[in-house]
Amino acid sequence: DGDDNPNRPRLTSDGPNEPAPTAPVVPASIPRLDVDAGAADADVDAADADLDADVDDEDTDVDTGQPEPPEGMALVGSDPGFFIDELEVSVSDYAGCVSASRCEPATHVSLTPEAFEVLGVLDADRAAFESAWQGRCNARAGNGDMPVNCVTFRNAQAYCTSKGKRLPTGTEWLAAAGDGRYIWGDAAPTCADSCYGANTECSSERGDIQTCVRGSHKRDITGAGVADLAGNVAEWVVDSGPKLDPTGPPSRIVRGGSFYDGAKSLPSKTARAFPPTTSFVGIGFRCALDVTSD
Question: What is the DSSP-derived secondary structure letter of residue 239?
Answer without folding.
Answer: E
